[in-house]
TrEMBL record:
GO terms for cellular component: plasma membrane. It is found in: Cell membrane. Keywords: Cell membrane, Membrane, Transmembrane, Transmembrane helix, Transport. This is Sugar ABC transporter permease. It comes from the Bacteria. Residues 95-312 form the ABC transmembrane type-1 domain. Belongs to the binding-protein-dependent transport system permease family. Its main location: membrane. It holds the Pfam family BPD_transp_1. The keyword Cytoplasm does not apply. GO terms for biological process: transmembrane transport. The keyword Cytoplasm does not apply.
């Protein structure tokens, strides 16, 4: 005699598998959802940044001068503006100066920012709050205002620094010393301003990244006899590698594109000693009225920065510091 045993009934039923058309719709929705989320941002960037870039590219291949402002006609010259700019010896000296300024700014920002972020982790809570507030206030100050304050501090006759140095009576009479009359001193002061203005972003970013490092790593390194420098070299810096990579890339772009401090403090002088690519493009377009040449310089700057960014990111991927 054969007995049939039925499975005990439960209060729930097995979920009904979706039909084929529902599965297709679900997969299609999942595939296109990311594009729908980033679509509005991409559209906004295309409108805000896309049109100016296209207009700049078109302007760079035209002989657009003062006459074109009134007639609206500008002959097409192709790569003529680029050939003329690249054949100018002034362009290469400006490019070299821009690279020097960028390297100096980025190196100073990374070193001082790392030290300041480390200090924020060591001080007491109230000191950390006060220091963070000061950094945020510096960061929030407009660059034009900061440049005007910098100009007042180092003004030849009424500058605060000249008065302080003169009152110390150590270096002699500095009451009429013109800090911006020498290209070397002027360039140093502009670099110091850029570093001072960009330091809060670097320091606070590194401080936030350091807070994500487990304390167990430092305790293990301390048990192995590692000092502070060894911990920073073998624990902190390797873990902060991806963050430092992004900061370096951003600061290079911002340093190369920096315009306001150069223009407010020196307008590229004296004798072109503080002219960088941003100032050079502005002078070419609005002082010499060669708008096509100024646009060509701007396009060359964008190409150089894009190439540098691609090479830098590829190198980071090859070294394994950044993962996809």
């Amino acid at each position: 005699m054969t007995s049939l045993t039925q499975a005990p009934e439960t209060g729930t039923t097995a979920p009904t598998p979706p039909r084929g058309d529902e599965t297709v719709r679900t997969n299609r929705l999942a595939r296109f959802t990311p594009y729908g989320l980033v679509g509005p941002a991409v559209l906004a960037f295309a409108v805000v940044l896309g049109y100016p870039m296209v207009r700049l590219i078109w302007l760079s291949v035209q002989d657009f001068g003062p006459r074109s402002l009134f007639t609206g006609e500008a002959p097409f010259v192709g790569l003529g503006n680029f050939t003329r700019v690249l054949g100018d010896s002034d362009f290469w000296s400006v490019l070299l100066r821009t690279l020097i300024v960028s390297v100096a700014c980025v190196a100073a920002l990374m070193v001082i920012g790392f030290l300041l972020a480390s200090l924020l982790r060591q001080v007491s809570s109230w000191a950390r709050v006060m220091l963070s507030v000061c950094l945020v206030l510096v960061w929030a100050m407009p660059m034009v205002s900061a440049s005007m304050i910098w100009r007042w501090l180092f003004e030849p006759q009424y500058g605060v620094l000249n008065w302080v140095i003169t009152q110390l009576k150590v270096f002699g009479d500095f009451s009429t010393h013109d800090w911006f009359g020498s290209p070397g001193q002027a360039l140093f002061l502009i670099i110091a301003l850029i570093v001072w203005k960009g330091l809060p972003f670097v320091a606070l970013t590194l401080y936030a990244a350091m807070g994500q490092i487990p304390d167990d790593l430092y305790e293990a390194a301390g048990l192995d006899g590692a000092g502070r420098w060894s911990m920073a070299r073998h624990v902190t810096l390797p873990i902060l590698g991806p963050v430092l990579a992004v900061l370096v890339l951003l600061e290079v772009i911002w340093s190369v594109n920096s315009f306001t401090p150069f223009w407010v403090l020196t307008q590229g002088g004296p004798d072109g000693g503080t002219t960088t690519l941003g100032v050079y493009s502005y002078l070419e377009a609005f002082t010499r009225n060669d708008y096509g040449g100024g646009a060509a310089i701007a396009i060359i700057t964008v190409i150089l920065l894009a190439a540098l960014a691609v090479l830098y990111v590829r190198r980071l991927f090859a070294q394994g510091e950044v993962t996809a």
